[in-house]
Amino acid sequence: MAKEITPRSENYSQWYNDIVVKADLAEQSAVRGCMVIKPYGYAIWEKMQSILDKAFKETGVQNAYFPLFIPKSFFSREAEHVAGFAKECAVVTHHRLMNNPDGKGVVVDPEAKLEEELIVRPTSETIIWSVYKNWIKSWRDLPILCNQWCNVVRWEMRTRPFLRTAEFLWQEGHTAHASAEEAQAKAEQMVGVYAKFARETMALPVIVGHKSPNERFAGALDTLTIEAMMQDGKALQAGTSHFLGQNFAKSFEVQYADKDGSLQYVWATSWGVSTRLMGALIMAHSDDNGLVLPPVLAPIQVVMVPIYKTDEERAAVLDKFEAIKAALAAKGVSVKIDDRDTLRPGFKFAEWEVKGVPVRIALGARDLAAGTVEVARRDTLEKATVSLEGVDAYIEDLLGKIQQNIYDKALAFRDANIRKCDDWEEFKTEIQKGGFLLCHWDGTAETEQAIKDATKATIRCIPVDSCVCEEEGKDIFSGKPSKGRVVFAIAY
RNA sequence: CUGGAUGUGGCGCAGUUGGUAGCGCACCUGGUUAGGGACCAGGAGGUCGAAGGUUCAAGUCCUUUCAUCCAGACCA
After folding, report:
1. How far is A223 from A240, CA to CA, in rounded Å?
2. Has residue A243 been placed in a domain?
3. Mean pLDDT, all residues of chain A
4. Which ipTM value was assigned to this complex?
5. According to a count of CB atoms within 10 Å of the terminal CB, is the N or C end of chain A lower?
6. Considering only A3-17, A172-186, A289-303, which range has the smallest mean pLDDT?
């Protein structure tokens, strides 16, 4: 029987799209570059949201909401920032439709032209800072720690489901502080939250580091990032946290009266992760049978497939399933009993594998007689026959093992594809094979650009949590002195 | 925007030198089945992306146009 998922060796892009579609995560929408996130995919996003949201609140952050539309003039205040976004924004110019005088459909009412165009937010710095201006008067008002869960629109020339869509869901945190040190610490704290989330929840090993000036967010003084490696060896930026300095405060004139009565500009951060994390999840863990979900994120952690010939057998098996389900539910495990009687077991096995459900239990007459169940794990595809007695404890333990194993597997893959490189000729061929190359860099934008032009590789980050990178050396391209190694890779 | 490719039932595709559309999956009905994507029989579903042209006749040839995909450019 031919598998529906295309082997990754043939065409990684096709393989990825197949998993998105077959696992029932998302489909293409009628709007160019946008996608419909289906219930199963959205359930995963909701889990990500709830876990992240809890972590944010533990750091004192509160949720708020700001408008979707931003007056065009707001963008002209921060020159550097607008340069990074101006080219790819959707613009609202009119506010009314009318019946087409030809009688065919509707047209934009030319009378309804807006005085000032509205930009559909590509990110909310400008509107949030125009609001913060009114919130911040005194040192007592600081810090302000707000996050918003919302959608943003960026009219990208080329899109890919989850990784780069014209509209996407994300959270964006925006904080204001009295001192540079406090703001910087906040930016570091939040990238730490992201790294912990990636590792512990998504089972995704990430490298935390600073972006080079070239790759920094428009308007930021420092950008911290978590960089992950996908199974084709390409890098994916999974989340960022920016130290914005006083750029936005100055542009939007956000000043507070300090304890000594002097007027001071506030210091800012912003940080965000998006539905791109879904893309990371898919590309990091999936295999040729489909999605592989870490148990912590799986909307369904255990699926039960009954096997029967007669109505009596079916009733007996489902009865047993209900008992196991109750025991598992008491332990906080989410369980789905697949009692559809129009489909055969083999079909169900394959279907739940594509969807990445971590554990599958099969139970039939044979097992009932022996007092056992068949427990299959998605990460290794191994099957075990387990005694019905205490199966709930076995599965609870197994879910933890699967979570750990998925992380270990991804970590082993990543580490096997990180290597040092000190020779430019070698670099040019090695980088095309995928993976991360740790190389010396002289710290100049010119060198970085030259390397990018020659190989398409970019500096993914200057690591902060890896001691191997702190050593003197010579730049791989220019030969000039370098204070440490940075991560080069070809990125999504 | 540049280069390449593709548009034919819900999905994936075939369709020769022009002759009035077919296959697989999915769907509906009935039956047999059920421990890894079942089988048999019957059935429904398409103005072939759109517009124009050539022709007795166009899915097929010509022109225009639109859309999608891939590779660039672009991109926290």
Report:
1. 7
2. yes
3. 91
4. 0.85
5. N
6. A3-17
Q: How far is the CA of A104 from the C1' of B47 (A)?
A: 21
- Quote the CA–CA distance of A229 and A488 in Å, as a whole number: 12
* pLDDT given at position A1: 31
Residue A49's pLDDT band (boundaries 50, 70, 90)? very high
CATH number at residue A476: 3.30.110.30
Q: CATH number, domain at A392?
A: 3.40.50.800
Q: How far is the CA of A322 from the C1' of B62 (A)?
A: 68
Do both A366 and A426 map to the same domain? no
**Distance CA A106 to C1' B51 in A:** 21
Please indicate, yes or no, if residue A382 is contained in any of the structural domains.
yes
Instruction: Clarify whether residues A254 and A176 are in a common domain.
Output: yes
The answer to whether residues A229 and A348 belong to one domain is no
> Rounded to an integer, what distance in angstroms lies between the CA atom of residue A490 and that of residue A235?
6
Nearest nucleotide to A124, CA against C1' atoms: B76
Q: Which of the nucleotides lies closest to A159 (Cα–C1')? A: B75
- The domain total for chain A is 3
Q: Are residues A281 and A308 in the same domain?
A: no
> How many Å from the CA of A289 to C1' of B76?
33
Instruction: Starting at the earlier edge strand, list the strands of the sheet with A458-463.
Output: A62-63, A144-153, A167-177, A267-274, A235-245, A222-229, A207-210, A458-463, A485-489, A436-440, A418-420
Q: What is the pTM of this model?
A: 0.94
A257 band by pLDDT with thresholds 50, 70 and 90: very high
- Which nucleotide in the DNA or RNA is closest to residue A87, CA to C1'? B74
Q: Burial, A434: exposed, middle or buried (Cβ in 10 Å; 0-12, 13-18, 19+)?
A: middle
Checking each nucleotide's C1' against the CA of A352, the nearest proves to be B37
Which domain, by its residues, includes A276?
A: 12-70+123-285
Regarding whether A229 and A280 lie in a shared domain, the answer is yes
- Residue A458 inside a domain? The answer is yes
Nucleotide nearest to A11 (CA to C1'): B70
Give the span between the Cα atoms of A392 and A323, in whole angstroms: 10
A23 plus A159 within the same structural domain: yes
More confident position, A465 or A397: A397
Q: Is residue A207 part of a domain?
A: yes
Measured CA A378 to C1' B35 distance, in angstroms: 18
Q: Which bases of strand B have any atom within 7 Å of the beta carbon of a protein residue?
A: 1, 33-38, 67-76
Distance A249 CA to B5 C1' (A): 50
